[in-house]
Structure formats: structure tokens, C-alpha cells
Amino acid sequence: MKISVIKVGGNIINDEQALASFLDQFSALEGPKVLVHGGGKLATAMAKRLGIEPKMVDGRRVTDADTLEVVTMVYGGLVNKNIVAKLQAKGTNAIGLTGADANIIESDKRTGWEIDYGFVGDVRKANASPIIGLLEQGITPVVAPLTHNGEGQLLNTNADTMAQATAVALGQAGHEVSLRYCFEKAGVLLDINDDNSLVPVLNPQKFEEFKAEGVVADGMLPKLKNAFDAIDASVTEVWLGKVEGLLSKEPVGTKIIGSR
Asked: Is the pTM of the predicted complex or chain greater than 0.85?
């Protein structure tokens, strides 16, 4: 199978019009597809409504027991089922899942950092067979960023990493996989404020140069690490960019080129 794995970020999910436009284009995307979503801004807003002050360190969420309850409700419930319902209305037969469902993604609680991030999971492995089974039935999996450790503990897990692990597992199962990271920018930009400064192709050497020069920094660094890990494993193609560019028949954005 040719499978598209699409990751969509919180800024799109947080905006009803942007989400509706994304889901229109996602529904129109031909062939088997998997959607992995975030939803951090909505989780932050819900936590504040419940009197729980979010804790962030270097842009990463610290997930204590109270916060885990909130992200489970928001990611696995509110956001996930809202997306599924909207996709059903557009003729896409979707099913909402987390990484714990059908043992799709197993993780380990994050350790070895100076900061204790609490109930945060680092992906150990993804299992392709449940996803393939759904795709073969014409069902589109919509995966929320929660995983489990195999011992009954849910873990808050980075959606970019989950998308990468899912794409790699599907590729290792013998499928042709396109991984696309949709976010608010046109792709990797030489000038963060100028979409016309798009870098159309990025290889590992240029990535290292951009890191040293500060062209890419902050949240783009882990996103690009995931992209390079995917293309160096078993994923056929990896793209980053805006929805309208990446979900067209001929993707427009930054294409990641691996070292092999």
C-alpha cells in the first residue's frame, strides 16, 4: 500500500476555521491515510479552566498526575472525537485512537533528564499491524498523542515522534509511506517571518549548517530530528510545510533528503 501519515499541530487544531479547512483537504487526500494530532494549546486552556497551572520547561510540558488527567481528556477525548465526527461528516470513515489502543505505540517514562517531566513517554516501538488492519477495511485511524508503558500507565507523548514512529513501522512492514508534518509555516525558512525564504530541500549537511547559524532553532529542532530519523529508516518521503501545500497531489514545502 501507499500510505500517507499526516501530523497536524496545535495551532491548526486551536482554530475552528483552520481545522475545517485542513479536514476538507485531508478528506480529499487519495489513498489510505493516518492522522496523528496534537492539541497542546487546548490542553493548556482546559487546565487553566480547572485551576491547574501548566508547567513548561524549554517548551516541553511537565505532566504531573493532574495534568495527565487533563491531557487524557483533551487529547484522547475532546480533540480526537471532534476530529473523528467532522471527518465522518466529510465522508471519511475515521476511528479515534490513542497509542495505547490496540497496542499501537509502546513507550517508556522519560528518565535521565535534569528535569523530571512526570508522566511523559519516550516512544519504544510502534506496531503497524493494527493500523494496517484498519486501513485494509477502509477505516482512517486518527491517533491522539497518548501512549502506554505496558504496565497500565498512560503517558503524554510528543505527537511528532508518534507520527515518525508510526510511519517507520508502516515502512518496515513493506509499505510505501509518505510522512507530512503540517504546521503554520511554509516549511523550513531562511527567515522565519518570510514564507518566500522557503528551503525546498534539506539534507543532513545543510541542517547542521542551519543549526550552527541559528536558522533553525527551538521547536523546529526536534521536528526536523524526527523527519531525518524517518527518512533514514524506512519512510519513502518526508515533507514539512503548510496544509495547503502538503496535502496537494504534488506536495509543496520542505522535502527532507536522508544520508543514504
From this structure: yes
